[in-house]
Write a structure and sequence with these properties.
heterodimer; A: mainly alpha; 79% helix
């Protein structure tokens, strides 16, 4: 089984070392293409050029949720199979997901100022996204409080699983409550409500963001494995001194 | 005696004796509510409008107070190891400890709420709605808090981390608790709508809390 092979950290390091340069290259190319397409996309007849904030806002919102999804799968890997790589992936994904969620909140707020007339409203979608950000900070705080990595992993895994309740709340918040935030417009029955001239650049940007996420995730996981090796070496050295 | 009943009686005894935190929660609740008019001014009309929200927020903070010692104290004196080795299912033991915690910290808050509500100029229907929502909602706060208490059991700075972990998860309870308390007084939604959702949240947390907390305890104590 392929996933089981990566239980050996050295094998994952080899995989990461070969894929990261390729992934970064592809990410750069897709980003260049996506930003170009976003720039030449027509302005909205009502919103003008501010519609282009969406090319950052929507993908970062998706990726903020995808990162928690990856952490949830990794949490199951930690608790059920005791997969050593799952701990590393979960720890590496948390700050990246937090960054995407923050980006989503900031871009949304900058868009909201001209369009809604305010930086922030206590709308269901915005509030649940803010809670996701707070949950990320809680998980990161937990990782930084427990010094033994494998115990921290198990505690963080349980918090991650409980926090996953927020994902469907974010997704359906615009349908359950009558909110200021736009309803579902990209993936819906009966086709997207967005015109292709804007939808296609959006998908390219989403692809670029996803590639960026996995590049950063693999790089952060590699750093984490190396950090753990340094920690083990330090512990071994400390035990020899005494 | 049935082990679960024994744990319930023991936890409640510990809570009400010297060093236990049973009445500390109510005192904290009172102090927080008393401080609020100093911060926003003694405008009775304003206090009446935001009174339910203040009381809910104070109850939320007060129910966090004794939580961090819930499993940590048992871990320190070794009784947690005995509980883990015992034959009673850990999920049920955790649930019973949650019930004991609620009876000693949550229930006194509910009972004190009408009196403290007088300070905030709440009238009788508002008081009744508030007490009802607190009665239904505070168990959810305790049982969500169980998860945080179990995760932070072996940490030295558990209390602070507990608040950071638990508070975001309690947001839905707070929203619907305050919404129901307000609906009874100013509308426009009928009281039943948010109140039923609050009941649902509590029932869900009664199930999710003990299972997640028991899983966390098993992982922590290995």
């Amino acid at each position: 089984m392929a996933l089981l092979d990566f239980a050996n950290p050295s094998r994952f390091l080899r995989f990461a070392n070969t894929t990261i340069p390729w992934l970064s290259g592809v990410t750069l190319i897709v980003f260049a293409f996506g930003i170009d397409q976003a720039m030449i996309a027509p302005d909205d007849y009502q919103q003008g050029a501010t519609v282009k904030i969406m090319f950052l806002h929507v993908p970062s919102a998706w990726l903020g949720m995808l990162a928690w999804g990856v952490m949830t799968v990794a949490a199951l890997g930690t608790l059920v199979w005791r997969h050593p790589l799952a701990d590393v992936i979960a720890k590496a994904a948390a700050p990246i997901g937090a960054a995407f969620t923050l980006l989503c909140l900031v871009t949304g707020s900058l868009w909201g100022r001209p369009e809604w007339g305010t930086y922030w409203v206590w709308d269901a979608r915005l509030t649940s996204e803010l809670i996701l950000f707070l949950l990320y900070l809680g998980v990161i705080a937990l990782w930084r409080t427990v010094d033994d990595p494998s115990r921290a992993a198990r505690a963080a895994a349980i918090l991650t699983l409980v926090g996953a309740i927020d994902l469907p709340i974010i997704k359906f918040s615009v349908e359950w409550w009558n909110t200021l935030h736009q309803g579902t417009s990209v993936f819906r029955l009966g086709g997207s409500k967005i015109y292709p001239t804007i939808l296609i650049p959006l998908f390219i940007m989403a692809a670029a963001f996803t590639l960026l996420f996995f590049t950063l995730l693999f790089a952060a996981a590699r750093n984490e494995i190396l950090r753990r090796r340094v920690r083990t070496l330090q512990l071994m050295q400390a035990s020899q001194v005494t | 005696m049935n082990p679960l009943a024994a744990i319930l009686v023991r936890d409640m005894r510990i809570a009400v004796r010297v060093g236990g935190g049973a009445l500390m929660g109510v005192l904290f609740f009172l102090v927080v509510v008393t401080l609020t008019p100093f911060a926003i001014g003694p405008d009775l009309a304003l206090l009446k409008r935001i009174g339910p929200a203040i009381l809910w927020l104070a109850a939320l903070l007060a129910s966090l107070l004794a939580l961090d010692r819930m499993f940590a104290a048992d871990h320190d004196d070794g009784s947690l190891d005995l509980i883990l080795m015992g034959r009673a299912p850990l999920e049920l033991v955790v649930a019973v400890k949650g019930i004991a915690h609620w009876l000693t910290t949550g229930l006194p808050l509910v009972l004190a709420a009408p009196l403290i509500g007088l300070f905030l100029n709440l009238d009788a229907p508002a008081e009744a709605a508030l007490v009802l929502t607190l009665l239904v909602g505070t168990p959810a706060l305790t049982f969500i808090g169980l998860i945080g208490a179990a995760i932070a059991v072996t940490l030295r700075r558990g209390g602070l981390l507990l608040a950071v972990i638990v508070l975001p998860l309690t947001v839905p309870v707070l929203i619907f608790g305050v919404a129901a308390a307000n609906a009874a007084v100013i509308g426009p939604v009928p009281f039943g709508t948010p109140f039923t959702i609050l009941c649902a949240l509590t029932l869900a947390s009664l199930v999710v809390g003990p299972f997640a907390a028991a899983a966390a305890l098993r992982q922590e104590m290995e």
